[in-house]
Amino acid sequence: MIGMIDGYSFTILPVYIGEISSPEIRGFLSKLPTLLFLSGILIINVIGSVWSIFTCALIASVIPLVHFVTFIFMPESPYWYIKVNRYDEAEKSLQIIQGENDVKQQLLIIQEAVREEEGKSKPKVTDLFTVSINRQATIITCILALQHKATAETPLFLFTKTIFEKTGSDISPTVSTISYSAVEILVLLLLDFSFWTDSEREFFV
């Protein structure tokens, strides 16, 4: 279940956000799933230091329930409507998203983007290796992913409190865990705002 939720959060959600948001803030909004993921860890660590696991589970269950009740009223992506030739519904969806009645210009831009996408040949998995630019992107992505795993971030994330307990520090393991989560969020926010003015390549270096 957790794997399904993570798969949804980090794949489908960014696509939906990208299709309904304006280009000016699309980059920042695409990072929201990661920010909310880390915020959830911080919140559960805070309330977990006060209440039992069962109580924390009940409190945490409120969020997906609110999501389910509210998200059914969210408009469908206008890109999807145009792809299936439902132009009137695409216009209504765009009006809700933009908060404006006159969305003809934006609708034409989306139609042109969809037309260009459909005019291209259907991508294949082999394109990741046979097309030069895709091959370079694939290699860079794999290297960055391997470097990320080599930092031992995953076991640190899973056993944060246990690790702090084993250190024998005078600082409470709970306080250390909460501080660790808070620092992660702070760094992410700093990087998000810095990306607007600085080079992404410099951050990777």
From TrEMBL:
Transmembrane segments: none annotated. It is found in: Membrane. Pfam families: Sugar_tr. GO terms for cellular component: membrane. Keywords: Membrane, Transmembrane, Transmembrane helix. InterPro entries: MFS_sugar_transport-like, MFS_trans_sf, MFS_Trehalose_Transporter, Sugar_transporter_CS. It is a multi-pass membrane protein. Its main location: membrane. It comes from the Eukaryota. One of its GO terms (molecular function) is transmembrane transporter activity. This is Facilitated trehalose transporter Tret1-like. The gene is LOC114338803.
